[in-house]
Design a protein that fits this description.
This protein is mainly beta. It has strands at 21-22, 32-36, 42-45, 68-73. Strand 2 and strand 3 form a beta hairpin. It binds zinc ion.
């Protein structure tokens, strides 16, 4: 489970982007933390980089295939504030 300390800089934003499931080998659409929905393993990855099977522990067959879901999206606007955190 991801953790944080500085709550004013993390905001909950409902978006369908957090519901999408991605296969290994595809490009990460956003920079941030992705979580395997099968086992809970988390990775940090930059946008455009390949969602890995290679650094992920192998699953027992009972868990099914590795599937990634966006857990936390990084923003790159240093002037961002709570007022303009509407998800794009
Ligand atoms: Zn997994």
């Amino acid at each position: 489970m991801a953790t944080y300390q500085d709550a004013p800089h993390v905001i909950r934003t409902p978006s369908a982007e957090f519901d999408k499931v991605h296969d290994p080998g595809g490009a990460a659409l956003y920079s941030g933390i992705y979580r395997c929905i099968r086992c809970g393993y988390e990775i940090a990855i930059a946008a455009g980089h390949t969602l890995p099977p290679q650094s992920h522990p192998q699953h027992p067959a009972s868990l099914g295939a590795i599937q990634w879901r966006l857990l936390a999206r990084a923003t790159h606007n240093k002037y961002s504030s709570i007022e303009n955190h509407a998800y794009q």
